[in-house]
Amino acid sequence: MLSILNNISSLQAENSLNTTQMSLNSTLQQLSTGQRINSGADDPAGLAIANGLEANVTALTQSVQNATDGVGMLQVADGALSQITTLLNQAVTVATESATGTVSSAQRVSLDNEFQSIKTEITTIGSSTTYNGQAVFGTSLTVFMSDSSAAGTSSVGVAMVTVNSTSLTINGDNLLTAGSATVALGDINTAIAAVAALRGNLGASSNQLQAATNVMNSQITNVQSAESGIMDADIGATTANLSKYTILQQTGIAALQQSNQMQQGVLKLLQ
């Protein structure tokens, strides 16, 4: 039926062309961004899941940094304790020398002066060692780690005990006599063992943080892979769609032109 009021075929062709154009625009956007989902309208459920996974990655990435910072602080503490061990070994030398009977009283005074300086240096190291502007010893280190969920939250606590000549039980010792030097030597050896034990505890905590870092890095990789599976465009399929919608656009334009030309047939009836 010929009609001048409504051109149904033209309207149908126009609607199909509009649909094709929308699909073509979406395909071009996917190719330009590399993402299958570029707005909530593309896949609301998928976008919600992907955003949650992105939050996981963000939290895990910062948690890795937290653990790395914690390891850094423990390494600084271990370095300071290594210096203290070196000083204690020097104290062993002067105490052993002072304990022998061939040393004069004047020499013991000199040896004791050196020993007192060693104790002062140990106390200074214990109080002045810092990490990121904070004192290392005499504090409690807590490393927080999370994947942004309540169930995925954990922390590692490390007691950073006070380190000085008093805590190492050598503060009251002196080398002014052979007897006091012998007592001091025993206390120094006890202090060396205490520092070694503390370094062992710090090393165990550092290993724990390193292991947690490895696990979190693996989680980041897996979560990013899952997010990629949701968000990333299938370039092969999208390219094929581009060809399809480009052809449909061209045929749609041709169909619209043809349907409009059909309307001109009405004029021939009036000639």
Keywords summarizing the entry:
two-stranded antiparallel sheet, 2 domains, 72% helix, 4 strands, 7% strand, single chain, f41 fragment of flagellin, N-terminal domain, mainly alpha, 271 residues
Structure description:
The chain contains six helices and four strands; from the N terminus they run αααββββααα. It starts with 7 loop residues before the first helix and ends with a helix. The chain has helices at 8-33, 44-99, 105-128, 178-231, 235-263, 265-269; strands at 130-131, 134-135, 139-146, 153-160. A two-stranded antiparallel sheet has the order 1-2. A two-stranded antiparallel ribbon has the order 3-4. With 271 residues, it is mainly alpha-helical.
Topology:
Layout: H1 8-33, H2 44-99, H3 105-128, E1 130-131, E2 134-135, E3 139-146, E4 153-160, H4 178-231, H5 235-263, H6 265-269
Helix pairs in contact: 1-5, 2-3, 2-4
